[in-house]
C-alpha cells in the first residue's frame, strides 16, 4: 500500500497573483475615494456658508444692526451652533468680514457682513476656499 500525500493550499504564484490584483484595485479606488470625500467637504462648506450668510442678513434686518461676532448669531437664536469648518475641521477657523456699509436705512451699527472659510487650500474649482 502506497501512502498518498495530499497537501492542500495555495502556491506562492497564486498568492502573488491575488495580491497583485488586490493592489491594482486599491490603486484604482483610492483616488476616486479621495475625490468623493473632497467633493462632499466642499458641498458642506458651500451649504454652511450659505446658512451663516443668510443668518447674518436676517440678524441685520431684524435687529437693525449687524452682528459683532458669529456668537451673536447663536445667542440670538439665528444659528443653533457655529458649524465646524469642513476643510479645517475647526469651529474657530471662520473668518468674519467686517464692513462699515449699512444695508438698510434703519440700520444703526455696522459689523459682520459675510463669512469665509479660514482654509488656505484651493478648491476643486481653482479658487481658494477663503474666497468662497
Helix content: 40-55%
Output the strand order for the largest sheet.
Answer: 1-2
How far apart lie the N and C ends? 83 Å
* Major sheet description: 2 strands, antiparallel
Query: Beta-strand level of the residues, as a percent range?
Result: 5-15%
Order of helices and strands: HHEE
What is the residue-mean pLDDT, rounded to a whole number?
Answer: 89
Radius of gyration: 27 Å
Count structural domains.
1
Low-confidence stretches: none
Identify the overall geometry. Answer: rod-shaped
Please provide the count of β strands: 2
Query: What is the number of helices?
Result: 2
Write a structural description.
- The protein is mainly alpha-helical and about 130 residues long.
- The protein has one domain (about 10-120).
- Helix content is about 45%, strand content about 10%.
- The chain has two helices and two strands, in the order H-H-E-E.
- The chain has helices at about 10-65, 70-75; strands at about 95-100, 110-115.
- The protein has a two-stranded antiparallel sheet.
- The longest helix is centred in the first third of the chain and has 52 residues, at about 10-65.
- The radius of gyration is 27 Å and the shape is rod-shaped.
SSE diagram, text form:
Layout: H1 12-63, H2 70-75, E1 95-99, E2 111-116
Note the main attributes of this structure.
132 residues; mainly alpha; two-stranded antiparallel ribbon; 2 strands; 44% helix; rod-shaped
Amino acid at each position: 500500500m502506497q501512502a498518498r500525500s495530499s497537501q492542500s493550499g495555495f502556491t506562492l504564484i497564486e498568492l502573488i497573483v491575488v495580491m497583485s490584483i488586490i493592489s491594482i484595485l486599491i490603486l484604482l479606488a483610492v483616488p476616486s475615494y479621495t475625490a468623493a470625500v473632497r467633493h462632499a467637504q466642499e458641498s458642506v462648506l458651500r451649504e454652511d456658508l450659505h446658512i451663516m450668510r443668510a443668518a447674518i442678513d436676517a440678524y441685520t434686518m431684524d435687529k437693525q444692526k449687524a452682528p459683532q461676532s458669529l456668537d451673536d448669531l447663536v445667542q440670538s437664536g439665528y444659528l443653533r451652533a457655529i458649524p465646524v469648518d469642513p476643510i479645517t475641521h475647526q469651529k474657530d477657523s471662520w473668518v468674519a468680514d467686517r464692513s462699515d456699509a449699512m444695508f438698510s436705512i434703519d440700520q444703526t451699527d455696522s459689523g459682520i457682513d459675510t463669512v469665509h472659510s479660514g482654509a488656505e487650500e484651493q478648491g476643486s474649482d481653482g479658487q481658494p476656499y477663503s474666497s468662497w
